Amino acid sequence: MPPLNKLAPSRSLARLRIALTVFFALDGFLFAGWVVRIPAIKEQTGASAGDLGLALLGVSAGAVVTMTLTGRLCGRFGSRPLTVAAAVLLSLGIALPAQTHSPLSLGLVLLVFGAAYGGINVAMNSAAVDLVVALRRPVMPGFHAAFSLGGMIGAGLGGLLATGLSPASHLLVLTVTGLVVTAAAGPVLLRAPSPPVDGGTGRAAAREGHGGERTARPGGGPEDDRAGLSGRTRRLVVVFGVIALCTAYGEGALADWGALHLEQDLGAHPGVAAAGYSLFALAMTAGRLSGTTMLERLGQTRTLVAGGATAAAGMLLGSLAPTVWLALLGFAVTGLGLANIFPVAVARAGALAGPRGVATASTLGYGGMLLGPPVIGFLADWFSLPVALTTVAALAAVAAVIGYTARGTADGGTADGGTAEARAGGRRAPAGATRDERCRAEPR
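RESULT FIELD:
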């Protein structure tokens, strides 16, 4: 029978993992619930397409500004308290758009909603990075799978409620749901002891390599002083942020242009065209659910390279296929390929630089999601929509190349010297790998 003093931390980490998974799912659920009511809010405010586009920039602006600040706040107050606080603000903020009656007021309240959305994404990903290192297993894709599942449930439920509830009533239901879930899961997240981090991998190893002392705040994350980070570490964080950008670019492009491509260029029925993005999202969710197993077997570098190459091949098929069904197959393959690139990139940035690393990677990734749709639109005007969509394949290939180039840090090493295993023998194992997998670790 295992000693009781080892069972307690294991159970504590399991409860912490469940609570954090709930917040990822809640984030996706609330955001999708808002998205499905955008058409009704547009009608309510009397906004033109251009006015709505400007108002929706409020979400982007609020998110980007908050993401740049949340990393520092996590280092000071802890990522878990900020996760709970941002969840409360997100739950309250989602009710505000339905109370507006002009494009200007809509844009202003969306600043609040976007700020909460950006804050919770950085905070909960920072908390997840700490837990991944403590568990010594690459479970980050599971958290992002919960986000995807929450989004699918939120969109599906929102579609059903849209016929019977006004936007105000629907979004108020989401507010109550968000507050109830936060009240249930928040105390678990706050009361759980800080995850023990050791084993010479991840962020703790980087700190120890500089002789730093890693302290913990009650109910929160580590106290992160990033003054000792080298320029190389900062550059590597940006590298992984660019990888996240390449992935999010594809997500944004397919969300806004995938259905139009199927209907306009391939003559798909509107229902089939609408199912295109759903198929992509479902494939991405399935890929993330299997992501931990993939990372344990392949390591981070091979997962990044294989994912980027798969997504590039899938999007070439999806954008250039002559038939609807081949294009749908391409969308599904693209979803499988992109599934784990963003979680791996954010996790690696967080392991290198803590909450600020997560903030940098998330901000770049979110920027890619914002960049994708307008770039596709401009290219479609200049060339054609199928040609424009091939840029998704190109950036996926770029992500694969960058992931391979950064292989010296992608698999369990730190930016400033790597793990003890790497320094001793020039080989490194994936963070969280089993003993057998460490023996088979790939060369630098």
